[in-house]
């Protein structure tokens, strides 16, 4: 068992760490998203290919951006991809149309969102300990979308700062996004701890700048065979008490906190 950490700032990932986005696999949800965009465009009387071809065309555009993200960690967004798709189809557009396309794309995602049972409890306890709390998330959605999600689940007030790759321009595991988070927290990397569910992005990324990391392992997800068996890991947020000073209260005290 590793000794407990004594950080000054606790920084969380968002998806699959605090909020569940993957009740349905992303690949499947993505198809529903693109179908919703096709419906939206047809309602606007915009001529587009049949769904199968439209999805292929949309995927081709996203693939170009994904390669750039994989090679150089440069972030992209669905609105950017939508704009490029319309250009390829020689469709005239304005900002309102792009916003409408994104709103349609996001519908199936929003429908499947849920918050983990222990998220609020842990955020409450971490806050009560006086730690600075941050959020750093890779996302291809506009920042405003996720800020609304935080409000929806009533967890926005727990964060001293939030940092989204779609706004920052670079995605995890690029070291600059973690350095930026440290600057926003006001502490050195060694004084911060990061919690997330992806080995490369959420463990190797922060560790590369000297920030401690805790990997939230997701059931049935395959992880790198090179991953050390001794790294700090949890299966749920409630297990954070094994690594930092977050005492899990009993049921009676939970009621007192909620009151």
User: Sheet bearing the most strands, described?
Assistant: 6 strands, parallel
β-sheet strand percentage:
5-15%
- Our Rg estimate from Cα atoms comes to 20 Å
Low-confidence blocks of residues: 248-259
Secondary-structure-based class equals alpha/beta
Based on Cα principal axes, name the global outline: elongated
* Total DSSP E strands: 8
The H-level CATH homologous superfamily of the largest domain, spelled out, is: HAD superfamily/HAD-like
Structural domains: how many: 2
| Secondary-structure element series | EEHHHHEHEHEHHEHEEH
Number of helices: 10
The appropriate CATH architecture of the largest domain is 3-Layer(aba) Sandwich
> Which fold does the CATH topology of the largest domain refer to?
Rossmann fold
What would CATH call the class of the largest domain? Alpha Beta
Provide the spatial order of strands within the biggest beta sheet.
Answer: 5-4-1-6-7-8
Helix content: 40-55%
Mean pLDDT, nearest integer? 92
* Ends distance: 35 Å
Walk me through what this model shows.
There is one protein chain. The chain is 46% helix and 12% strand. By secondary structure, it is α/β, with parallel strands linked by helices. It has two domains: 9-20 and 114-258, Rossmann fold (3-Layer(aba) Sandwich), CATH 3.40.50.1000; 26-111, DNA polymerase, domain 1 (Orthogonal Bundle), CATH 1.10.150. The strands form two sheets. A six-stranded parallel beta sheet has the order 5-4-1-6-7-8, with helices on both faces. A two-stranded antiparallel ribbon has the order 2-3. α9 (199-207) links the parallel β6 and β7 (212-216). The longest helix has 22 residues, at 51-72. It starts with 8 loop residues before the first strand and ends with a helix.
